């Protein structure tokens, strides 16, 4: 690891101005929990000249719920806190469960919402520094290589998947992130547009600018009758990255589904909405057969790689079970 300068930011403005002094050759990066950043620095994937510690900024660790405005999470709120915060548990079950099932208790105690959304892919080709030094380009090499955990949809240009599992729930809830730039200027970007297909040649897989800070995550207030569920399917129950994860948000009128959002993570470069399946559900009464049809529609069009076709039936089963679990919540 090369040596670097460490600065404790005093405010959002201070952090933004320090980040703005970076360049492509002399990058300046933010550090929240440091769980991903330090891994990347140790692996030689990132070599910043300055690290801006944003944990010293006050006011970015709040959780607020308002019946009109919805939920606001400061970017420094940890995953552990999201998983047990009463308003999140009560009204945004899929997010609370996604946070609770990410990583390990130790990681969740340090990892922040902002850093989680900005973490880089877990693709082993991406994280292998010698591959980077060789000027690696993932697509052709991974397509023929160890692609067990890679994308089964939209995998023509990249086969890597976004690592964040809370992002799957956030996409299903229609959440947005607040980005703050120079002069305190903020912009609100839907999480579905914030995340970009991972790219080894870029320094981020999001639309954040080098001189912006992710300051808040916002979720609209749920309509009456909203229910949700989340499931992360790994190879084992203890901490592990998922084979796939699914978040379902249903707005129910008695037993009839009025609106449906199904988001699927770790199966496409960014969390993918199962639009066909959602259409099938709307206006109908949910039963086992309808859930089965929706799950079949959700995996329609999958284009698995040489070693990950096993993900397709697993995803289908998880969509079916999560839709049923959301309606029963
Ligand atoms: C064993 C293990 C298992 C894991 N399993 C999961 C899992 O199942 N699901 C999952 O989602 N994750 C998982 N993770 C990853 C972990 O959750 C992330 O590394 C963590 O959430 C990153 O958050 P952080 O606050 O530590 O970010 P940092 O490491 O501090 O930052 C990550 C990136 O975001 C940038 N950044 C951070 N905050 C901001 C901000 N506010 N504004 C602008 N830029 C910012 C940093 O510059 C850096 O590039 C796992 C990790 C480990 C070690």
UniProtKB/TrEMBL annotation:
It holds the Pfam family FAD_binding_5. InterPro entries: CO_DH_flav_C, CO_DH_flav_C_dom_sf, Diverse_Substr_Oxidored, FAD-bd_PCMH, FAD-bd_PCMH-like_sf, FAD-bd_PCMH_sub1, FAD-bd_PCMH_sub2, Mopterin_DH_FAD-bd. Signal peptide: none annotated. Residues 1-224 form the FAD-binding PCMH-type domain. PROSITE patterns: FAD_PCMH (PS51387). Keywords: FAD, Flavoprotein. One of its GO terms (molecular function) is FAD binding. It comes from the Bacteria. PANTHER family: XANTHINE DEHYDROGENASE FAD-BINDING SUBUNIT XDHB-RELATED, XANTHINE DEHYDROGENASE SUBUNIT C-RELATED. This is Periplasmic aromatic aldehyde oxidoreductase, FAD binding subunit YagS. It comes from Archangium gephyra.
